[in-house]
Write a structure and sequence with these properties.
With 539 residues, the chain is α/β, with parallel strands linked by helices. The protein has 19 helices and 16 strands.
């Protein structure tokens, strides 16, 4: 009898962004991903547990059916997409609706390729419950002789953080002209960037939706359709509006004290392992005030579109919810199944404009625990999800299915890295030596035939070095060092010039070989060929 093959595991110690141009990272390796999905499916079938009185197995069936139906309806509102007749798995990824760099976009290529290979349905979650953290987009500016990092404004900032599911463009003229302004900024490096044909698609989606985030995400996803990628998309706001999600909210609210302890302990353990002192990474601790407990959920409404933390407490036969600002309401939690009653109340709120949305760690916990057979992370998300995995074990009593990671590095045409920190370090070391051991850096003609004065200074130093250490010896050596400095001045100036030149060169190279430029800065042909090369290789 053959032994079952072990499920591949994500090795977080190997998570490094590729250091060279046009390289990708997939972890576990691409060839292991089908086995990873298979192992995850078996683990999910074997796992027990429940949420708000509903067995996890049944809740998964309900949630996945709701997810696929909603994602198919949403995606077909702006582009065509095909699905396998009988999907063999549900694959997930997610990111904020923004102009992200090609390494993030590479996740979507992997999602598509893996779905084709497995006959699976792939859903990219558009995290529109987040806010637009900056309205400035990085781009290469200047010219080849003097490259510099520039910033192109996408829209005028707001005076409050409105979730992207509700954020409208505040300066339509500025938003409409973004494509031409970005093209003008990068003209010396890329004559025809992707933003030129892409931005009219974004503006068309903006006219259709009226929303900044939806315009960016739908424009990018429509472009993926032109390349033949068959993935679905669904905003996280829609995911949190599905009936199945209300069971998670009800379960956390009912067990708020236990969940609060498990969550904060998982965050503190992560900080201890990683030796982090930050109070915001990977996530702030949940607050508590008397009998009120904070949950890792946002709440807001269309009338008051400002994200605030959701707090809960149990009072007799009801559970009270508040944002600790302007809203507080209770839900009945009595009868034979109080958590089911809570879930039904949460669903009513969602339908009537009181919205509850996941924060970052809970977003991937829900996706991995219930929605999919595989979640595809970027590097940062995979590292932070250590917290999610500990929370699932200690609070929900079941391990999460294994995740995977995909990212890539794409530089501008002609970019290269020839000056490294090690090379600069050697120059800086030599420069320090010219100050403390100037006799080692004499001009060649002086080194072989030193003048009488220099010979006398060198002989005096040799004599002092042979003596026992003492304060007087140290003082005399320092005086000699000062008198020897002028003899090494030429070499010191030469090293300073070399160092300054290499630092300028490194700065210029870092501008061109910057991997965080948005995908629309690059040539469409270069990006398409890079993604298609992966898809062909993975077929």
């Amino acid at each position: 009898m053959s032994c079952p093959t072990a499920t591949p595991r994500l090795d977080r110690s190997r998570l490094r962004a590729p250091a060279e141009n046009l390289q990708w990272l997939i972890q576990p390796d691409w060839e292991q991903l089908p086995l990873l999905v298979q192992g995850n499916q078996q683990q999910l079938r074997d796992s027990a547990g429940e949420l708000a009185g509903v067995p996890l197995a049944r809740l998964r069936q309900q949630a996945r059916r709701q997810l696929i139906e909603a994602a198919l309806h949403y995606t077909r509102s702006y582009r065509d997409v095909d699905l396998p007749c009988e999907p063999q798995a549900v694959l997930l990824a997610g990111h904020q609706p923004e102009l992200f760099h090609p390494g993030v976009w590479f996740k979507n290529a992997v999602l598509h390729a893996l779905a084709v290979r497995l006959g699976a349905v792939a859903v990219n979650l558009v995290i529109d419950s987040d806010v637009l953290h900056r309205t400035l987009v990085p781009a290469p500016g200047g010219d080849w002789q003097h490259p510099q990092r520039a910033w192109v404004e996408l829209d005028r900032p707001l005076d409050r953080e409105v979730p992207l599911e509700l954020r409208r463009v505040s300066d339509p003229r500025r938003f409409a002209s973004f494509g031409s302004r970005l093209q003008q900024t990068v003209r010396h490096f890329i004559p025809r960037p992707l933003v030129e044909p892409f931005w009219p698609v974004v503006l068309e989606r903006h006219r259709a939706t009226g929303l900044l985030g939806a315009a960016l995400a739908q424009g990018r996803h429509a472009w993926e359709g032109l390349w033949g990628w068959q993935t679905l998309e669904l905003p996280q706001s829609a995911v949190c509006s599905l009936p199945a999600f209300a069971h998670l909210v009800a379960h956390l609210a009912w067990h708020a004290p236990q969940f609060h302890r498990a969550y904060n302990q998982a965050v503190l353990d992560y900080r201890r392992r990683r030796r982090l002192r930050s109070r915001t990474h990977p996530s702030p601790l949940l607050g508590r005030q008397e009998d009120w407990y904070e949950l890792p959920l946002w709440t807001y409404s269309g009338q008051e579109p400002v994200r605030r933390g959701l707090w809960v407490r149990r009072r007799g036969a009801q559970v009270e919810f508040t944002d600790r600002a302007s809203w507080q309401e209770g839900l009945p939690a009595g009868g034979a199944n109080p958590r089911q009653a809570l879930a039904e109340g949460v669903q009513r709120w969602q339908r009537h404009g009181r919205w509850i949305r996941t924060r970052a760690l809970l977003t991937t916990l829900w996706a991995r625990l219930v929605l999919g057979d595989l979640f595809l992370h970027g590097i940062g998300g995979a590292k932070y999800d250590e917290v999610t995995e500990q929370l699932a074990r200690e609070f929900f009593g079941c391990p999460l299915p294994e995740a995977a990671v995909a990212t890539a590095t794409v530089w501008l045409p002609g970019a290269r890295r020839t000056v490294g920190d090690e090379q600069l370090g050697r120059l800086k070391h030599h420069l320090r030596q010219t100050l403390w051991q100037p006799e080692r850096f004499l001009p060649p003609e002086r080194e072989h035939d030193p003048p009488a004065e220099l010979r006398r200074l060198l002989e005096e130093k040799r004599r002092l070095l042979a003596q026992p250490s003492s304060p007087q010896r140290h003082r005399l050596l320092e005086q000699l060092r000062q008198r020897l400095l002028p003899w090494a001045l030429a070499r010191q100036q030469q090293l300073r010039q070399q160092l300054a030149q290499l630092q300028r060169q490194q700065q210029a190279e870092s501008v061109l070989a910057y991997r965080e430029y948005p995908f629309c800065v690059f040539e469409e042909e270069k990006l398409r060929d890079f993604f298609l090369a992966f898809c062909r290789r993975s077929a």
